């Protein structure tokens, strides 16, 4: 048993799937090295990717605290709010989403499925101008519910919580398993960061296991300084819980920002052609917010840095958000004129 399994084994876990396969990325790529993909998207449909790993330890902690209502903060297309809501319903916990109001005239994508499962009346929308105080709004709702006798808990965007971090560590453990099965050791591993929790768990998990490979993190939301501050905070959490010393020389990583489209939002225009042509050449669909951008940027970063050897790109799932983009996808069909 490796050190990471030992560590996550200290926490109660749900039995959600945690083993995903890796395979070479089909198609030709104008880069050196042997490129593999880790199919976290195959771990589930609405409940896939890095998120289901976070929920492995988050859900049992909510159950053991006797929580009956969860206030879930996120964007209206959030993979976290939709997927976690489903797993909470399974446990008899009522999800109350607190969503950033989008300008969509009609519910679409993840928001449509969320509304269908939890009911339109359960959704609370916060306007963009008010969004900076969403946690405050959630806490005051939590207090109101407590006064009514409910046991409510606030779940921040992306389940950015200690209870989720230890589940997220199973990604590093599963990569070690893939390596043993394939008989290889990855030189570079690409992953994207929203809140950064899954990328941070990967960096720290590999460091705890003394893995020599380097993690390249595509920063989609945070600036470098913020990511580094977060990394330091979680390093201390992990040291405290595990008793392992993680010095900075054991952490191998680099951070990079998207070359095109700096804003944290779905791709547009040519990005859609790229997403569709990647599906055609590799047989893998990617989502328009995270993974499609990661693959495009990873190939370009690999080329710039002249990376060689065995290179792994993590596909973190999120495919259900594609449902909100039928129009953009249809525009990629060959026209008949
Ligand atoms: C949520 C999500 C992320 C971001 O994960 P963080 O831990 O918040 O950085 C990345 N990719 C996909 C597909 C996601 O759903």
UniProtKB/TrEMBL annotation:
Enzyme Commission no: 3.5.99.7
The Swiss-Prot or TrEMBL record lists the needed cofactor(s) as: pyridoxal 5'-phosphate
The record's GO molecular-function terms, alphabetically, read: 1-aminocyclopropane-1-carboxylate deaminase activity; D-cysteine desulfhydrase activity
Family annotation (PANTHER family): 1-AMINOCYCLOPROPANE-1-CARBOXYLATE DEAMINASE-RELATED (PTHR43780), D-CYSTEINE DESULFHYDRASE 2, MITOCHONDRIAL (PTHR43780:SF7)
Q: Which Gene3D superfamilies match?
A: 3.40.50.1100
Q: Which domain of life is it from?
A: Bacteria
Q: Which residues carry this modification: N6-(pyridoxal phosphate)lysine?
A: 51
List the InterPro entries.
ACCD_DCysDesulf, TrpB-like_PALP_sf
**Keyword Cell inner membrane among UniProt keywords:** no
Hydrolase listed as a keyword: yes
**Protein's UniProt name:** Putative 1-aminocyclopropane-1-carboxylate deaminase
Q: For this UniProt record, give its keywords in alphabetical order, as a comma-separated list.
A: Hydrolase, Pyridoxal phosphate
- What sort of enzyme, by top EC class, is this? hydrolase
């Amino acid at each position: 048993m490796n050190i990471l399994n030992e560590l996550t084994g200290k926490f109660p876990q749900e039995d959600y799937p945690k083993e995903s396969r890796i395979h070479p990325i089909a198609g030709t790529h104008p880069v050196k090295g042997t490129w593999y993909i880790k199919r976290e998207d195959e771990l589930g449909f609405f409940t896939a990717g890095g998120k289901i790993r976070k929920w492995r330890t988050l859900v049992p902690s909510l159950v053991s605290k006797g929580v009956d209502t969860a206030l879930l903060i996120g964007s209206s297309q959030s993979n976290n709010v939709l997927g976690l809501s489903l797993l909470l319903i399974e446990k008899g916990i009522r999800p109350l989403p607190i969503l950033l109001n989008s300008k969509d005239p009609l519910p679409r994508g993840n928001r449509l499925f969320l509304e269908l499962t939890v009911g339109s009346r359960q959704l609370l929308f916060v306007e963009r101008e008010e969004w900076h105080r969403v946690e405050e709004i959630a806490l005051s709702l939590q207090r109101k519910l407590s006064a009514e006798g409910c046991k409510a808990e606030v779940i921040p965007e992306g389940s950015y919580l200690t209870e989720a971090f230890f589940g997220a560590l199973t990604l590093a453990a599963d990569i070690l398993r893939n390596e043993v099965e394939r008989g290889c050791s990855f030189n570079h591993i690409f992953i994207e960061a929203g809140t950064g929790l899954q990328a941070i768990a990967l960096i720290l998990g590999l460091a705890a296991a003394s893995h020599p490979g380097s993690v390249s993190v595509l920063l989609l939301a945070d600036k470098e300084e913020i990511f580094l501050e977060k990394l330091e905070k979680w390093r201390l959490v992990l040291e405290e819980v595990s008793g392992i010393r993680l010095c900075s020389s054991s952490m191998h990583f680099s951070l990079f920002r998207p070359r095109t489209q700096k804003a944290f939002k779905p791709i547009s225009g040519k990005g859609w052609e790229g997403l569709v042509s990647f599906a055609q050449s590799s047989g893998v669909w990617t989502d328009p917010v995270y993974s499609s951008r990661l693959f495009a940027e990873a190939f370009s970063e690999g080329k710039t840095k002249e990376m060689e050897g065995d290179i792994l790109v993590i596909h973190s799932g999120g495919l259900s958000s594609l449902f909100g983009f039928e129009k953009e996808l249809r525009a990629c069909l060959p026209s008949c004129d």
